[in-house]
Amino acid sequence: MDDHHRGCEPERVSEWFLPPAERPWTSGNLVVPRVHGADYFARILEVIGATRAGDRIFLTDWRGDCDERLTEDGPTVAELLSAAGRRGVEVRALLWRSHPGPLNAEENDHVGAVINESGGEALLDERVRRGGSHHQKLFVVRRKGRPQDDVAFVGGIDLCHGRRDDAAHEGDPQAPPLDERYGETPPWHDAMAEIRGPAVAHVLDTFAERWDDPTPVDHRNPYRAVLHRLARMPRHPEDLPERWDPPPEAGPHQVQILRTYPAKRPPYPFAPEGERSIARAYSRAFERARRVVYIEDQYFWSALVATTLAEALRREPELHVIAVVPRYPEEDNRISGPPMMYGQRLAWDRLREAGGDRFAMFDLENAAGTPIYVHAKVCVVDDEWMTIGSDNLNLRSWTHDSELTCAVVDPDGALPRSTRTSLWAEHLGLPPDDPRLSDLSDPMALWVERAGAPGSRIRHHVPPALSARTRLWARPAYHALYDPDGRPRKLRGTERF
């Protein structure tokens, strides 16, 4: 074992993770990254298709579409979940009760109705801050009498249109509306983590805490009452069944499950002042970074979030930060585009000031030259600590919306390293065994060399600087609507989480 990975031996895992009193962590897990929606959907189909009467399925989602196909010729989301319920599998779901309008309300109503009509129980949950959302995406499947087969999934992929793309990045035939420059079937890059072992129970804890919250799941008014009845949603959710013991050990990985919950009224019983373990875990990892921080993120906004990385760049002269982001916002019109550009430019300016050309952003395009929408939320630090989750690197995800992330440390660094090199091979257009992928002596040089090269998908990304006139309205819109602060009042205006 080389010096780089000796720091990740089991007795020093605690140096990367938050203290157990803040967030517990477990050993003996097996984590498999599921990159691309097509791979994840095929795996979900396999896992849920193998469930039997007496097994249990728990899921949360930001948005689901009943008619989204899991494979080209396979069942839809509705068909998969309803079939499980009809054969005696206990299905419980927490779906975000979206704000009225063009977001997710009607689609999530339909998914909830399908689950409830087939013998399961789905709740439409709006216990969030004003303007917030439940952004957590998890699946937990527990097998009666077969705990070695228990599995959880955590990450960024919703059960909805647009997500079933693969490594070719030609897009999901069931396409969502996106900026027209992404084409008729927008290419989509995303990731989930498949987890086996004791950490499955910690993922389920997140579901159980939300389910058991006695606060009403939605506002009480006649309009919402009608929606609840249409979704066959029970007025009083049933108690969760008796908990089974955690699954047995399944592999070599240490896992810490991290969350975000806002400070709100009424408070969450399990997080009276909110929870910001995701923010604190990232801050801790960035403090330990020495060679490379690799990020894939949908937004990468916020001067405050960028500050944690800027401090690391100033402290460590050999550190490089590489971020992969979408080329364009999902809605890049005259109203929604400038606030998002303002936020990303804030982060860009702060990091370039701190690290110069040791920081760079890149975006992706497919073989046809169509930009790829980056929805993945992945971070790898020094090939020792990695995350796959639902959170973006911005203040909203770190403080305001509910989020869920899987942080992993591997004793020999194999999983973080293989995850990073696999992603780099795809993006840079290199063979997976190219030795340059493992060389972290000057990682930025390889990215600069491959940007725009034949076979490479990466292109340099520089957020545009807005005019002073545009900033006058984009700045307050950004802070109020796009990247709000969900911390307790005593922490606002500080750099603490």
From TrEMBL:
Q: Does the keyword Translocase apply?
A: no
Keywords recorded for this protein, A-Z: Hydrolase, Lipid metabolism, Repeat
What is catalyzed by this enzyme? Answer: a 1,2-diacyl-sn-glycero-3-phosphocholine + H2O = a 1,2-diacyl-sn-glycero-3-phosphate + choline + H(+)
Q: Which CDD domains match?
A: PLDc_vPLD1_2_like_1, PLDc_vPLD1_2_like_2
Entry-linked SMART domains: PLDc
Which InterPro entries has this protein been placed in? PLD-like_dom, PLipase_D/transphosphatidylase, PLipase_D_fam
One GO MF annotation is: phospholipase D activity
**GO BP:** phospholipid catabolic process
| Protein name, entry field | Phospholipase
Organism the protein comes from: Nocardioides gansuensis
Q: Which residues form the PLD phosphodiesterase domain?
A: 130-163, 370-397
